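Re: the 96-residue chain
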Amino acid sequence: MENEIVCYLSSKKVDTNKSEYRYVNQITCPEFNLSFSGDGDNVKKMIEALHENKCDINRVLSVYRGDTLVFKKFPLKQWLFTEDRRPEWLKPKGSR
């Protein structure tokens, strides 16, 4: 599909010292030559970077780990501009 942005999730080995290592999550987008890794929300970082690179927000974003689709396919605008549908009493106190 030409209107689809494909991103891939993987794990990356990071050395903590000479004899110890751990794995962190990584997301890459070959089309825009972007990659993010670390312990945070890498998918959100990727979506924000795609928006900053003037990517069309009507394009569909697909996220795969290997051959498996990780999230449902949604337009980029739906990832970017979501509303908080939680009741007021469940929202964090600073966001009301």
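DSSP finds two helices and six strands in the chain.
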